[in-house]
Every structure is written in structure tokens, then in C-alpha cells.
Design goal:
Layout (H helix, E strand, L loop, with lengths): L10 H4 L4 H5 L2 E6 L15 H4 L3 E3 L4 E6 L5 H12 L25 E5 L6 E6 L3 H11 L14 H12 L4 E6 L7 H16 L3 E5 L12 E6 L2 E5 L5 H11 L1 H9 L3
Parallel strand pairs: 3-7, 3-8, 5-6, 6-7
Antiparallel strand pairs: 1-2, 1-4, 8-9
Length: about 260
């Protein structure tokens, strides 16, 4: 099996692995359950963590979905920090800290990495992107577009990040990227995600957006009180509720506003 001219030294190992694994940057994350001090204490008490053993990632796109409070963002943060990203977001070159709020979950995770290393990478947190934009401005970092991020709206700055900063052949971890994007921009984001995948990138995305999670052949992992399980797109609550509402919004509204 051929893995490309820059991977000749990996040919023997590629013979016993799939081409997808040869290209994949992040294979899986395992919780060292024996080292956990207590599953009654945060963050180990979170449903997504309490039942976690191994989380396997798709070579292209993996979605973490579920209700608020299940631990999607905490888990994604731990994976990102464990891989070497700054807890508040940014690339591996970012090391700022405005508030020490991240958990120590990353210390209990074992990340299995692929043979290849990404040429690019970024951890996007919607809630702390303002801090990232400030660091970009203060450090004079280039590559985020011609217009300073703070001179753009929240949605425009997110879009500049996706279009200008993400260069491909990278590992991108995104926490609720839809937070600042209109429905039309979310559709455009699907195109951008596909471009990144076509350029050899891998993405792990925590989201509530039924638009984003429609990306073809992605692995959708549903986090609930019962643990983490893969689901089909049409099985997600996000898809089903959205479809029900759009089919008959007036009926749904009557049910919501009904006085018992």
C-alpha cells in the first residue's frame, strides 16, 4: 500500500494498517479509569466521562452531540489539551491563560496518535474566541485575513478563522462553531469542512447544529446519561426535533404554550 513519497519509511507499517489509519492524526482516546480518584467528583462525574472507556475517532469528521451538561465541551477540551493545544483555544503556539478554568481530565486520557503528524492545527472554543482574537492582535500573528478579528463581527471573525487560518492537512477541534454562524453560513461551513477533509484534515466537532452534523459519512457520537454511543444522523434528537418543528411549527408551539 502506498502512503505517499514522504512516507517511505512507514511502508512496512502501512501494509498492516488501512490507508485511513495511515492518514489519521488521532485514532482514539482512552480514559485511565484505574487512576481516576473518584467518579463522584467533577469532571469524572459528568455522564460523558463517567462511562468513558474508549472514544474512537473517524479519519475525517467526528461529531460529539448531546444535551447540555453531558460533558461534550469538557471532553473536547481535555482531548485538545492532551494533544498539546492551549486550553482557551488557538494553535499549539498559543500559551496564554486569562482564567484557569479547564479541568485536569486531560491528565487521565491516553491519546492514540496516527503515524502522520498534522501540518496545521487549531482548537476553537466559541466562549473564549475573544481571548484568542486579543492574543492574535497583541502578538501580531498573521494568517487570519486582512482585517483584524476585533474589527469584525463575531460571526465574521469566526468565518475568517475557517477560511483564512485553517490551511489544511491539519487537526481541527471545534467547540460549537455554529454559535456565531447564521444558517446560511453553517451551510457554507459544510463546504469548508469538506475542503479541509479533501486536503487531508481531521476534525472533531462538538455541536448542537443539525446542519453541521449532516456532513456525509461522519461519525456522530451521542453523549447521554447512559454513556457514549454512535448514532445515525436521522436518529439524533437534533434532526428529529428540527424536522418535527419545521413540518408543523404551529402545532409544536401550541403544545409548548398549552396551559394545563
Amino acid at each position: 500500500m502506498h502512503c505517499g513519497p514522504s512516507q517511505k519509511n512507514l511502508d512496512d507499517r502501512c501494509l498492516i494498517m488501512s490507508l485511513e489509519h495511515c492518514k489519521q492524526f488521532l485514532l482514539f482516546a482512552e480514559l485511565n479509569r484505574g487512576a481516576v480518584p473518584s467518579f463522584d467528583a467533577y469532571p469524572f462525574s459528568l455522564p460523558a466521562v463517567r462511562n468513558l472507556e474508549r472514544l474512537e475517532f473517524h479519519p475525517a469528521v467526528t461529531f460529539l452531540v448531546g444535551e447540555n451538561g453531558m460533558g461534550k465541551s469538557t471532553l473536547l477540551e481535555a482531548i485538545a489539551v492532551g494533544y498539546g493545544f492551549n486550553a482557551e483555544g488557538g494553535s499549539k503556539n498559543f500559551s496564554f491563560e486569562t482564567r484557569a478554568s479547564h479541568s485536569d481530565l486531560y491528565q487521565y486520557l491516553r491519546l492514540a496518535r496516527g503515524f502522520q503528524r498534522p501540518k496545521d492545527g487549531f482548537f476553537l472554543r466559541a466562549e473564549s474566541f475573544y481571548n484568542v482574537a486579543t492574543q492574535v492582535e497583541e502578538l501580531g500573528v498573521t494568517g487570519y485575513g486582512a482585517k483584524p478579528l476585533h474589527d469584525q463581527s463575531h460571526g465574521e471573525s469566526f468565518w475568517s478563522l475557517l477560511m483564512e487560518r485553517f490551511r489544511g492537512h491539519g487537526l481541527y477541534m471545534l467547540d460549537e462553531p455554529e454559535a456565531a454562524l447564521s444558517p446560511s453560513r453553517q451551510l457554507a461551513a459544510l463546504v469548508r469542512i469538506h475542503q479541509l477533509v479533501q486536503s487531508g484534515s481531521q476534525l472533531v466537532i462538538a455541536t448542537h447544529s443539525p446542519i453541521l452534523m449532516a456532513y456525509p459519512d461522519a461519525r456522530i457520537l451521542h453523549l447521554s446519561e447512559d454513556g457514549i454511543r454512535p448514532v445515525a444522523y436521522q436518529e439524533t434528537e437534533h434532526f428529529q426535533l428540527t424536522r418535527r418543528f419545521m413540518e408543523n411549527p404551529q402545532r409544536i408551539l401550541r403544545e409548548l404554550f398549552r396551559e394545563d
